[in-house]
Specification:
two-stranded antiparallel sheet; alpha/beta; 40% helix; 12 helices; eight-stranded parallel beta sheet; 376 residues
């Protein structure tokens, strides 16, 4: 296994660009980078640019992962770049992205079914609860896109890996894989997102492990609040997710899996919007009816996990929602090396250290960056 980082959360990734960001990853002692889409590497899919990025990753001994993007047709207007890269034909755009990725040896590609909009409160921040279209209709439309892209994926030796994203359940993803085919579809397992669907992280890991081909390694605070439960990203090892159980599950299923940290973005790169509270409305009848796969057994385990975590918060071991939200995670610019350096870097390094410790304690091999050529 190798430990790297999600490119969206790497400080100054846009300012530095892909190649300088690869060098930045190396400086941080990490083993690779997961760009959300191939357009993040080259907005025009320039073959020369992409080859240069691939070559630099190889020179530095780093893994390079990528994706296609949000493929829910009801979200397409929110990502016009996918249609634009197809000259107005969004399916052609997705096809070109798959082909360009495969050409540089990126055969595991991230896809996602929606967006989280932090400017809205409660369940309406989540595309699962849109009022203009049902979630079932969105799932059927997303599955139709996957079925249309499946021949392209197979022709290019690619897996389209659905993230356990904010709005979708692991049960729904597994049904999609059954329909589309595991030969061209897999899972990007986000270790914390399932919490927003009231899924216990260990239960979810066991369900999806055979299909996990990419990861977002993330931790979170979950605690009771009026109307539901708060969710807030935390440094890995400082939240509710038990990585000492989850990492061995993933390693057993896929010993060569890349572990990509998804940390909180620096506020210098992405200023915070108002964060909604009570986004997990487990006891709301509308919310609960939208999760028919959630069993009483898993719900009880989830609530017991929250109870145990809240004891740690009460004891002062873990900061509560308000205390942590008041903190700022900046990052220095090239020129000034100014405010926020310690916070942003500490988040990454502390998270990495926790995963390294878990791997060591469980006898899991975690490779360090090494110079070698990729196998196309």
């Amino acid at each position: 296994m190798r430990l790297g980082i999600d490119g969206q959360k790497l400080p100054e990734v846009k300012k530095r660009g892909p190649i300088k960001s690869l060098e930045h990853v190396k400086e941080l002692g990490l083993s690779g980078i997961f760009f959300s889409t191939v357009l993040d590497m080259s907005p025009t899919l320039d073959k020369g640019e992409l080859r240069d990025i691939r070559a630099r990753a190889d020179e530095l001994g780093l893994y390079l992962e990528s994706g296609v993007g949000k493929i829910n047709p009801y979200c397409s207007a929110e990502a016009p770049e996918f249609r634009a890269i197809g000259d107005g034909d969004i399916m052609l755009g997705f096809t070109r992205m798959i082909e360009a990725s495969a050409a540089i040896g990126c055969h595991e590609l991230w896809v996602s079914p929606g967006n989280f909009k932090s400017e809205y409160r409660g369940r309406l921040a989540n595309d699962r609860f849109r009022t203009d279209v049902t979630w079932d209709e969105q799932l059927r439309a997303t599955e139709k896109v996957l079925l249309s892209l499946a021949p392209v994926a197979r022709a290019n030796g690619v897996h389209l890996n659905m993230e356990t994203h904010d709005e979708i359940t692991s049960f729904e993803i597994l049904r999609m894989i059954e329909t589309v085919g595991e030969d061209c579809m897999g899972v990007v397992f986000d270790t914390a997102n399932g919490l927003q669907r009231a899924e216990h992280p260990v239960f979810a890991a066991r369900r999806v492990a055979p299909y996990v081909r990419q990861t977002h390694i993330k931790d979170a605070y979950v605690g009771r609040a009026p109307g539901g439960f708060d969710f807030q990203t935390r440094p890995v090892g400082r939240g509710i997710v038990d990585f000492s159980v989850i990492i061995p599950i993933l390693a057993k299923a896929n010993p060569a899996l890349n572990l990509s940290l998804e940390v909180a973005a620096s506020v210098e790169d992405k200023p915070r919007k108002a964060n909604p509270r009570q986004c997990i409305q487990l006891h709301d009848p509308v919310w609960r009816a939208s999760h028919p796969d959630l069993t009483a057994e898993e719900q009880d385990a989830y609530l017991a996990m929250v109870d145990a975590f809240e004891l740690r918060v009460s004891a002062g071991e873990i900061p509560d929602w308000e205390t942590y939200e008041a903190s700022q995670y900046g990052y220095p610019t090239y020129e000034t090396q100014s405010y926020g350096f310690n916070e942003a870097i500490a988040f990454i390094r502390n998270s990495a250290r926790h995963i390294e410790t878990v791997c060591t304690e469980n006898g899991i091999a975690l490779s360090q960056p090494s110079t070698k050529k990729h196998a196309a």
